[in-house]
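Tokens in:
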């Protein structure tokens, strides 16, 4: 399912008086000079807005955390909406390895309160928040960025952030690590998606990304200004949807609202629009309880058809005028049932039970409308163990990450109306990634290796894995025993035969190694799998070629060897993975 979402992000905390917008600054030049070469300048624009709280969201959680300081603003009549960050590591003392380049590649957020001054529309009477999702042209330098503009058209990729987090398996980043490896990887991924979208925008709409990032007040683009004000009318209604979701979760979480992927076609299409699709987001990490557990909650949705009057229509509504469709009040149940897709996952995290290991117990719920009209529903639970591995010697990588995991859907029932739901499954995953960075003596990049076990009830491989580890049950699990058992299943191809001999009908084992260079370009990816059926064991070896255009391995057209030759075809590369067990 395609998830390239256009999030003209307008988190209207109450609503935007006079036509505010929900976006983040963008790279663009400005007539206002920067105070010094080290000063980072942002301009907040509906009209030019003074009196906002503007900060850099280093850890991508859309909230101002301690250690994320606010920019200064002259806050004076006749000012031009400019805000300044002092470009020094002392100003950002809570951020490890801080740099100007890091700051320019992170999200910025401008919270516009009641009483702020919009140079065109006057005093702001209803608060709102705008976002900036960074974008720069391929091969462009951050040094070319003079001013970042925040307008109704600069936060188009908020969904790219959540999509990239899912792909990179990033749940939360500490503020101190906002210029670290995970945050850098997230920034690169988001910008790559934005660059792809820029090409689509040019090809499909005939527009340029630079136009979306421009200061339309300075260029006297009245058409963009009027469109921005129209968007605000919908975002005022979206604020009511946000309140409904907040109420459902007892105001525990910070809910964000944005426009969804399909919005661009309606905003710049030939017809006037009566509805716009919106997305909802939650990214929450709570406080530690007395047992060391920290609650987490992630919610991503897309494609809720919203009208200016606050009514919602089903995703199946295809009328140009949505008023001709059946409309619903924006209750929580109606919101969930009317979405194009819905993904929620969260649970609890604990760093106190096993020394050096973070334990995460999560649930996951997803609901998708397929193109053929089917409704795909997914529910599962996962128990994960995050850790790093020590290594001594000249041959050691910079870091070694480990993630054993149990995932299953036992005991979960689909929602009403679901037409697609997985059969019961239980998977065991073992994952290790060796990363080498900043080395002059050996190649930089990453080398990952993992095994997936699909097990049936009564399996001889792992006869009684824990499955009830959510809610209050999380305190009844023998985590050390489970961790040790999964770790014992992290074996080389030399040892997989003994485990495969224990498989019962319906089980399979898949082991895979992947290497990439320092620029994340794939070097090699090979998968060996063995499955047990009524006729015995079936074996496959698949090598996935790299696709430069897609910037990914081509999983649709692998080079495949089947039967008894599969083991030897995969062996040399897969078995050469270094576990660093020294």
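Residues out:
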């Amino acid at each position: 399912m395609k998830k390239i979402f256009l999030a003209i992000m307008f988190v209207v905390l109450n609503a935007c008086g006079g036509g505010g917008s929900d976006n983040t600054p963008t790279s663009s030049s400005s007539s206002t000079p920067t105070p010094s070469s080290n000063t980072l300048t942002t301009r907040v624009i509906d009209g030019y807005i003074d009196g906002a709280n503007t900060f850099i969201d280093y850890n991508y959680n859309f909230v101002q955390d301690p250690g994320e300081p606010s920019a200064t603003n002259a806050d004076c009549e006749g000012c031009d909406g400019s805000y300044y960050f002092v470009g020094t590591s002392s100003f950002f003392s809570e951020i490890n390895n801080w740099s100007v380049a890091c700051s320019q590649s992170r999200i910025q957020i401008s919270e516009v309160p009641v009483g702020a001054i919009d140079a065109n529309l006057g005093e702001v009477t209803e608060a709102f928040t705008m976002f900036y999702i960074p974008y720069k042209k391929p091969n462009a330098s951050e040094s070319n960025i003079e001013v970042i503009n925040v307008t109704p058209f600069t936060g188009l990729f908020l969904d790219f952030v959540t999509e990239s987090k899912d792909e990179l398996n990033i749940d939360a980043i500490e503020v101190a690590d906002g210029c670290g490896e995970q945050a850098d990887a997230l920034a690169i991924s988001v910008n790559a998606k934005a660059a792809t979208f820029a090409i689509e925008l040019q090809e499909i709409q005939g527009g340029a990304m630079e136009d979306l990032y421009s200061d339309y007040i300075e260029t006297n683009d009245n058409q963009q200004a009027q469109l921005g004000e129209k968007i605000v009318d919908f975002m005022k209604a979206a604020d009511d949807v946000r309140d409904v979701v907040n109420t459902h979760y007892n105001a525990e979480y910070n809910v964000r609202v944005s426009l969804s992927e399909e919005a661009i076609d309606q905003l710049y299409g030939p017809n006037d629009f009566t509805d716009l699709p919106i997305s909802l987001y939650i990214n929450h990490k709570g406080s530690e309880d007395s047992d060391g557990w920290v609650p987490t909650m992630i919610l991503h949705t897309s494609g809720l058809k919203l009208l200016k009057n606050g009514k919602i229509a089903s995703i199946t509504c295809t009328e140009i005028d949505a008023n001709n469709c059946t409309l619903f009040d924006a209750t929580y149940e109606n919101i969930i049932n009317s979405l194009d897709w819905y993904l929620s996952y969260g649970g609890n995290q604990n760093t106190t039970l096993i020394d050096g290991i973070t334990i995460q117990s999560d649930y996951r719920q997803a609901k998708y409308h397929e193109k053929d009209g089917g409704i795909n529903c997914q529910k599962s639970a996962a128990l994960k163990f995050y850790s790093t591995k020590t290594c001594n010697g000249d041959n050691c990588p910079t870091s070694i990450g480990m993630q054993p995991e149990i995932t299953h859907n036992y005991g979960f029932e689909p929602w009403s109306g679901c037409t697609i739901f997985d059969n019961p499954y239980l998977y065991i995953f073992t994952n290790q990634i060796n990363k080498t960075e900043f080395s002059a003596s050996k190649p930089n990049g990453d080398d990952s290796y993992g095994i997936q076990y699909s097990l049936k009830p009564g399996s001889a491989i792992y006869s009684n894995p824990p499955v009830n580890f959510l809610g209050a049950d999380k305190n009844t699990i023998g985590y050390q025993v489970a961790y040790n058992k999964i770790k014992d299943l992290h074996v080389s191809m030399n040892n997989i035969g003994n485990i495969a001999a224990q498989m019962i009908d319906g089980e399979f084992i898949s082991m895979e190694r992947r290497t990439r260079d320092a620029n994340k370009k794939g070097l090699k990816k090979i998968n060996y799998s063995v499955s047990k059926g009524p006729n015995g064991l079936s074996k496959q070896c698949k090598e996935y070629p790299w696709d430069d255009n897609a910037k990914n391995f081509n999983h649709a057209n692998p080079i495949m060897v089947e039967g008894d030759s599969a083991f030897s075809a995969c062996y040399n590369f897969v078995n050469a993975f270094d576990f660093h067990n020294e």
